[in-house]
Specification:
Length: 518
């Protein structure tokens, strides 16, 4: 068993490296393209792109539940070694996604168009462009639905290198579009061209993904077909999971629409900037979780509970450390970073970025818990309680804004509800799979709070002692990285983890020194 654990750890580390390579490139390109496209479109058009795309994303409250179900069942059956069931799950999932695509198309072209043209706050001279964005976003969304079973195969088989290559290809295609829109030497409606081009990329990526899966995975040869047992299991799981998915969509895109209704597209632009920063920074920990999640599901399917609980706790802690490492200097230097990055910083953007990163640090502690809960397949009571609490983001935010609250209040509401959801998840997992709530709070939550407290002291002192400027940004970033690394190593890690990390660091340093000496 120890040999298997070691092999699993090596696989997670290897897959994490692949994903981090993609992430680093993606983060650099994303931060650059966000600035370029903001300057090219302008604040209002950028806000329209963000909120209309977000409106279409709200349709994922229909699809997200079944998409999560597809990923869970494909990974579970692969971990259980049931090839026949794996084929049936994949075939049924294709049929489900095709049906969902037709439903989304029907709703979008009726209720969606009505809401866009009669309720949203969009300048009259840009409503035509907004309709183009809407149509492109709808078809991009449907393409994403059809990609879901194939992406689930890639992740379940842990082909993270291929996953990373697809991501890199997508990054460069997006970069080419942004540069074209920003610098093409002729006149056109940049907002329309940008949106339609993103849709075209989706078509290309879906075709490449389909070809790869068809060549390497026998399951992908299955045609869309209805299997009653697979349908009943996935639809039952998805039906209850829909509560949590709906809550997540309303928390993000629903609140985004509320901000549009109360404050207009300029504040949506600020929220879009905060979302871009959060996505880029969150990829540091998110890619690590992507590498770990299949192991959590497979470990549960094979009954390896000791390894499972260790993996859940360890992935939560290290996911938080990775996110803290990059978040800390950005939280301290948000104003200067956004000014350097965007030149023109939308109102509220600085505060939105800070609060978004705080939200992300809290939510990362729940990621592995969510994966474990999904792996069990027993989610009815869990979703009623946790999903019900998460659903409160939307009505509480609406009430706060209706009573005259500033737009940043929606982030504080999300932080409080996020903490409550984490505690509820722990309570359910203690009853369902025997995960110790006390051990998690002590070994994970208390651990990361103490580690973060130790890491933040020196960077904060440096921030207040030095004058504002690029030099301070560089020094604060370096000090934050060093402080977080040392705090993680000597406060956050166990003796065994510290020994493993140091040995790997020494091995890498030795190889690097040897390569330079040749």
């Amino acid at each position: 068993m120890d040999a298997q654990y070691t092999e699993n750890t090596k696989r997670i580390a290897k897959n994490t490296v692949y994903l981090y390579g993609r992430m680093l490139l993606g983060m650099i390109v994303s931060l650059y393209t966000s600035r370029v496209i903001l300057n090219a479109l302008g604040v209002v058009d950028y806000g329209i792109q963000n909120v209309v795309g977000g409106l279409v994303s709200m349709f994922s409250l229909i699809s997200s539940a079944l998409s999560a179900s597809i990923s869970r069942f494909i990974t579970f059956e692969l971990g259980a070694g049931n090839e026949k069931r794996l084929r049936q799950v994949f075939s049924t999932s294709l049929l489900i996604q095709i049906g969902l695509g037709l439903i989304v198309l029907l709703i979008a072209e009726t209720a969606g168009l009505w809401f866009l043209n009669h309720k949203m706050v969009i300048p009259a001279d840009r409503l035509y462009a907004a309709n183009w964005i809407f149509q492109a976003s709808v078809f991009s969304f449907i393409i994403g639905l059809l990609s879901c079973p194939y992406n689930a195969l890639l992740v379940a088989y842990e082909r993270m290198n291929i996953f990373a290559y697809f991501g890199i290809f997508n990054i460069f295609m997006n970069l080419a579009i942004v540069l074209f829109v920003a610098y093409a030497p002729f006149n056109f409606d940049k907002l329309i061209v940008y949106s339609v081009s993103l849709m075209a990329i989706g078509f290309i990526m879906q075709f490449v993904l389909w070809r790869y899966c068809f060549k390497h995975f026998a399951e992908s040869h299955e045609l869309p077909r209805f299997y009653k047992q697979s349908w009943q299991e996935m639809s039952g799981f998805a039906g209850w999971n829909a509560i949590g998915c709906t809550a997540g969509i309303l928390k993000d895109q629903g609140v985004n629409v509320l901000i549009n209704l109360f404050f207009g597209p300029a504040v949506n632009a600020a929220r879009g900037i905060a979302g871009s920063v959060s996505t880029a920074v969150g990829s540091f920990s998110g890619n690590f979780m992507t590498a770990v999640n299949p192991q959590i599901t497979k470990s549960y399917a094979s009954g390896e509970h000791e390894y499972l609980f260790m993996l859940v706790q360890r992935s939560s802690r290290f996911g938080f450390y990775l996110l803290l490492c990059i978040s800390l200097p950005i939280i301290l230097e948000t104003q200067f970073v956004l000014t350097l990055w965007l030149k023109t910083v939308p109102q509220y953007a600085v505060l939105f970025v800070k609060l978004t990163l705080f939200c992300s640090l809290i939510e990362i502690l729940s990621n592995s818990l969510i994966t474990l809960q999904v792996a069990t397949g027993k989610i009815r009571n869990y979703q009623i309680a946790v999903g019900g609490l998460l659903l409160m983001n939307f009505p509480v935010s609406w009430l706060a804004l209706k009573l005259g609250a500033q737009p940043w209040m929606v982030y504080l509401i999300a932080i409080v509800i996020g903490v409550g959801c984490m505690l509820l998840r722990l309570w359910f997992l203690r009853k369902m799979v025997g995960l110790s709530m006390r051990a998690y709070l002590k070994d994970v939550v208390l651990n990361v709070l103490v580690t973060a407290g130790a890491a933040i002291v020196i960077p904060v002192v440096v921030f207040f002692l030095l004058p504002d400027g690029f030099a301070r940004l560089v020094i604060v970033a370096l000090v934050s990285f060093a402080s977080t690394a040392v705090s993680t190593l000597y406060v956050g890690c166990t003796a065994g983890e510290r020994s493993f990390i140091l040995s790997k660091f020494k091995m890498a340093a030795s190889k690097l020194a040897f390569s330079f000496s040749r």
